[in-house]
Amino acid sequence: MPRPRILRWHGFSRRIEGTGALRLLLAVLFSLFVLVLGLCLGKVMLSPQRVAAVLAGEGGAGLSFIVEQLRLPRLLLGALIGGALAVSGLILQAIVRNPLASPDLLGLSSGASAAAVLYLSAFAATWGMGGLPLAAMLGAGSAALAVYGLAWKQGTSPLRLVLIGVGVSAMLAAATTFMLVFSPLSTTLSAYVWLTGSVYGAGWREVKALAGVLLCLLPVLVLLSRHVVVQQLDEGLARGIGVRVQWLRAALLAVSVALAGSAIAWGGAMAFVGLIAPHIARQLIPIGFAAQACMAALVGANLVMLADLAGRTLFLPLDLPAGIFVAVFGTPYFLYLLIKQRQ
C-alpha cells in the first residue's frame, strides 16, 4: 500500500493518498485538454498548432480576436463558475449531512434569480446591466439569511436547514415567475437566458471580477476546511470535545453562499453543478476534504466548459446557453443518485 503524502498549509496538515494525487493530476490534464478543445472548436475551426501560434502572438488580428477575446475568456469564466458551484455544493452537503444538498436546495439559486429578474424588470433600463451581478449576489445572500434565520431555534440543525430551504426556494421561485409574467417581453427573454445559465459574451472584465472574488474567499476556505469533518459528527459529541458547532456551521455556510452567489451572479442559475460535481469528487477521492474540494472544482469546471462547448458547436449557427446542456448531463446522474439513495 502506498504511504499517504502529507501536504501542510498554514500549520495544519491534509492527507492525499497516492492514488488521489494521481487522479488530481489526471483531472488537471483533462481540464487542459478541454480548454484546448474549446479554443479549437467553433464556427471557425482551428488546429492546436494554430491556437498555440495565436497565443504566441503569431496568428494575425482576426484569429487573435477569436481565440483571445471570444473563446478564452468564455472558457475561463465557465471554469471559475463551475469550480465555485462545485465547492459550494461540497460544503453544503457536509453541513446538512445530505448527499442531495446543493445551492439550489437551500434557496441560493432562487434568491439570486428573483433578485436578478427584479433588477432586469425595474432597474436595468436606468442603471444598465453592470449591476446585475451585484443584485444576484445580494439576492443569494438574503435568501441564505432568511433560511438560516427561520431555521434558528437555539441553534440550527441540518434537517431544519433543508426543510426551510426548500420552502424559501419554492416561495422565491413563485415570486420570480410572477415578475416574469408582468415584465416586458424583452426583459422576459433576457431573464430566461440568465435563468438557464450562460457565459455567452463573457469578456476579460467578468473573468477578472469573478477571479478576484474567489481569490478573496480562498484563504477563508483553507482556514475553515479543517473543521468541515466536525460537521459530520453528532452535535453533542462535537460540543463535548470543545468545538463551537454553530459558529463553524454559520461560517462555512457563509463561505458556501459567497461561492455560489458569485458564480450565479456572473453565470446565471446553472442547476445540477453544485449537486453532481461533489459526488463525482467523493467517488474519485473518498477521504480528505482538501483533496475533494480540489477535485470537485476541477469536475465542476470541466462540466461547465463542456456544456458551453456543446452549446456553441452542436447546433451551429445557434449558440445555446450552457445551462441547457448542464441539465442534459446532470438529470440522468441525478436520477441515479435518487435511486441509489432509495436503495
UniProtKB/TrEMBL annotation:
Keyword Ion transport attached: no
GO biological process: siderophore-iron import into cell
InterPro entries attached to this UniProt entry: ABC_BtuC-like, ABC_transptr_permease_BtuC
GO molecular function: transmembrane transporter activity
UniProt keyword annotations, A-Z: Cell membrane, Membrane, Transmembrane, Transmembrane helix, Transport
Membrane association type: Multi-pass membrane protein
Subcellular location: Cell membrane
SUPFAM superfamilies registered for this protein in UniProt: ABC transporter involved in vitamin B12 uptake, BtuC (SSF81345)
Classification via PANTHER family: FERRIC ENTEROBACTIN TRANSPORT SYSTEM PERMEASE PROTEIN, FERRIC ENTEROBACTIN TRANSPORT SYSTEM PERMEASE PROTEIN FEPG
Family, per entry: Belongs to the binding-protein-dependent transport system permease family. FecCD subfamily.
Name of this chain's protein: Iron complex transport system permease protein
Organism in which the protein naturally occurs: Phytopseudomonas punonensis
